[in-house]
Structures
1.
Amino acid sequence: DAEITQSPRHKITETGRQVTLACHQTWNHNNMFWYRQDLGHGLRLIHYSYGVQDTNKGEVSDGYSVSRSNTEDLPLTLESAASSQTSVYFCASSRDRDLTEAFFGQGTRLTVV
Amino acid sequence: GENVEQHPSTLSVQEGDSAVIKCTYSDSASNYFPWYKQELGKRPQLIIDIRSNVGEKKDQRIAVTLNKTAKHFSLHITETQPEDSAVYFCAASNSGGSNYKLTFGKGTLLTVNP
């Protein structure tokens, strides 16, 4: 069955380290999104991509970057991890422009110490 | 950009009662409004959605209503059950437009007491 998977599920890293969170989908969806979830803030968009080689900044993009070299993957990189980036990160994907089939990954809990 | 406000942030009801969660949005170009349910420790999952050309949509015990003029939409859950306990998120998007992405509300923690 098609799915969207994130790895790792849990990660502890030190302040200042570079961290990459993986997101892989087998739906063949063009659209992929990264959100962070924090208590009291809901789901906030970090970066998104409408297709290969396309990336866009969301509302909380500072300190994060993404690249889209193929349809299946959208890795999220924290250039220099900060304690404020401790959060649960969700990747999502959807089919084309209608967004009616947006599926979320299982989430990655990142702790920056 | 789009801004979505969601109320209440917490809601506690007795089993069998109805629950209503309300959201407002700011961008009049938004035309797609999904609702997601997130159980503790799980991923958000789509439960129902509505497009701007429809005023109401039902799926068994859940329904969503949309008032485009007032720019608000609501989730209605009837005959609530303990398994309805979860965090519910509303979202809005300009689906099909040049900049389509989901903007979420902050969520409502629904607790259904047996």
2.
Amino acid sequence: NAGVTQTPKFRVLKTGQSMTLLCAQDMNHEYMYWYRQDPGMGLRLIHYSVGEGTTAKGEVPDGYNVSRLKKQNFLLGLESAAPSQTSVYFCASSGNEGSYEQYFGPGTRLTVT
Amino acid sequence: RKEVEQDPGPFNVPEGATVAFNCTYSNSASQSFFWYRQDCRKEPKLLMSVYSSGNEDGRFTAQLNRASQYISLLIRDSKLSDSATYLCVVNLRDTGRRALTFGSGTRLQVQP
């Protein structure tokens, strides 16, 4: 049972480079989220999606774009990476009934030099 | 002011000790409350939900005080394996995004 998976696990980028982080879930969840986690800041919501084909801005969306072309996948793009985007990125998903529990992927550690 | 505030710790306790973590939240409209556990360099995982009447799961007890906007987690008979960061999490029952707001966590280190 894979749950939520993320690729890649680690990445080092130079300032100005672009990349896409992929999140996949096999639980048929409607809701998907991208967070970043920095020391002392907790998890902060970047973008989220309430269903296939939908995306919306979270708390810290600047510098990121997302797409949800398929229900099971949620992509996070960095068009022009900056050192301030050095962080651990977590994807999460949640079902559309009952508990608000979110299930997290293992994270992507991104360093921008 | 942060929406969810926690003492960052670390709390260093010996095995077998009882330890309590507290959390305050700023939004009185918050409706659902959770404790998540995050091991070093791992993803957060749900430890337990927190109900108004208080609830217990084995060695773990969670309490909610809506009037004071305060949540607590009590761990009895601490084990080495309890060493982790504990995240206080609240949900504002908003219109549709089912968003959770996370505290920055309290680190627990249980020592032999």
